[in-house]
Amino acid sequence: MEINLSQPPSPGLSLPARLAKDVAIPVSSCYQCKKCTAGCPLTSAMDLFPDRVIRLASLGQTDMLLGCRTIWVCASCVTCSTRCPNGIDIAGVMDWLKEEAIRQGKAVEQPAVAAAHGFFLESLRRGGGRLSEVDLMRRFTFFKLRRQPDFKELWENAKLGLALFKRGRLRPTGPPALRCRHEIDRIFQKAGKKYYLPVFYFTELMGLAMGHSGAAGWLARHLVDPRPLLQKKGWLR
Ligand code: SF4
Ligand code: SF4
Fold first, then answer.
1. Interatomic CA distance for residues 13 and 17, integer angstroms
2. Do 68 and 115 belong together in one domain?
3. CB distance 40 to ligand 1 below 6 Å
């Protein structure tokens, strides 16, 4: 991507302030030592190197950043963040930019990567903070089948999945949810995600079935209120 830094900053000068407020990342303290870029394993596929991303972020060049390929190529390996002498979380900036591009409905140059990013987060949310590889693979496979079916690749992946399953490396049901599942919901809620499917927790359903007086109160705290559905089924009054 061609950059002309002599251009005046776009009206998005609030970008450093937003990054500081949303994710507490002080991009303005970057002094362009380029240690982040020197350690990044994926620069060959990027159109903007990580140090350029941080420089453009501190200049408020939001549009350029939201339209670049780099944010989708970044694998969130965090090498750059650990190398930065100023403690700037470059990988965190990349993640924030991905989310912002999705929020603003920007055309994504790498739709498969964007889809995988969304499936990963959704699988994590549904798994209560734990990732189910099977769920992630299922979602991504259907996405690819709809867009660009490659049956040879599908067959190879199926063989690999079966081999992993036989060795006990894949759980069809995914790992058990974390106990602090409400906290996971709150993190996603804070990130501005909108969900419409109610999630039920086994312990709450047990409490409901046993007539526990606090069951309705617990259900009221859910990110997506499950009470209307339970009332419709006659399981909650
Ligand atoms: S390592 Fe840190 S200070 Fe150096 S260029 Fe990258 S972001 Fe800036
Ligand atoms: S997190 Fe992204 S930008 Fe940073 S080193 Fe890894 S791939 Fe490169």
1. 8
2. no
3. no
